[in-house]
Amino acid sequence: QDEGIHQLEALLFTIKKINSDPKILPGIKLGVLALDSCDSTAYALEQTLDFINGFIARNNAHNDKH
What is the pTM of this model? Predict the structure, then answer.
């Protein structure tokens, strides 16, 4: 049952390590959006697709302005 929290902690640890070393991604900071899927694969997929679609829409809107 604790598998999800362990994966989240590993992700947060990794991102913190990457962000603290300016040689890895100079000028770039990574972030996380963690969604609780309530242990439902279908819900997790739906949330992931909503996130990706929103990202694509914002990216397209940004590119249209430039």
Answer: 0.55
Question: 4 Cβ partners below 8 Å, 6+ apart?
Answer: 37, 39
Residue 1 CB-density burial (10 A; 0-12 exposed, 13-18 middle, 19+ buried) = exposed
Q: Are 54 and 35 in contact (CB under 8 A)?
A: no
d(CA 6, CA 20): 21
Do the beta carbons of residue 37 and residue 44 sit within 8 Å? yes
Which two tokens mark 42? Answer: 């279908």
Q: How many helices (H) and strands (E) does the chain have?
A: 2, 0
| Residue 19 pLDDT class (50, 70, 90 cuts) | very high
